[in-house]
Write a structure and sequence with these properties.
The protein has about 170 residues and is of the alpha/beta class. The longest helix has 15 residues. The strands form two sheets. It has a five-stranded parallel sheet with strand order 3-2-4-1-5, with helices on both faces. Strands 6-7 form a two-stranded antiparallel ribbon.
């Protein structure tokens, strides 16, 4: 492994905010649109949703000639095969990435780690301290947001905007 990848982590202390979706979209954009080598390490135990999705995708490809043809066309158009995904735990995420990259002639510009929806999982803090970048998606969950200043000056009687999400 000649080049050192940039380690990028997607995590949140709340489940259901789109960590896995963001990881998949980012990996695909970097890999197919920008032509960068990407490795995804799915540390989101116990469901490992990215690994499970990849298994479903490969199963569909085996059984459906139309999707198989679409994948071949993607390979021909981009010159890129599908980006790899490795199943791991947060405690062993970095070791799993390094082991995958050390096996054979594999390199990556980016290693994306998808973590569980809780920071209480074993090894999370130790892992986060060793990464290059961290992305924490947030979701306003029925929050009331207020702008604490008048929008159009005193003529609005100090009215405030209140927005509700959800």
């Amino acid at each position: 492994m000649d080049k050192q990848p940039v380690f990028f982590c997607v995590c949140s202390q709340k489940g259901g905010v789109g960590k896995s979706t963001f990881t998949i979209l980012l990996a695909s954009w970097l890999h197919y649109a920008l032509g960068r080598d990407v490795l995804v390490v799915d540390c989101d135990a116990p469901q490992w949703s990215i690994v499970a999705q990849r298994e479903r995708e490969l199963d569909v490809l085996e059984r459906n000639d139309r999707y198989k043809l679409m994948m071949v066309r993607l390979f021909k158009r981009t010159g890129r095969k599908i980006w790899p995904v490795v199943r791991s735990t947060p405690e062993e995420g970095l070791q799993a990435a390094h082991a995958y990259l050390a096996a054979g002639d594999r390199e990556a510009d980016f290693v994306l780690l998808d973590l569980p929806g809780t920071v209480a999982a074993p090894g999370i803090f130790r892992l986060l301290a060793r990464l290059d970048h961290l992305f924490i998606p947030l979701k306003a969950d029925k929050l009331v947001l207020r702008v604490p200043f008048p929008l159009r000056g005193p003529s609005m009687n100090n009215s405030y905007i209140t927005t509700h999400s959800g």
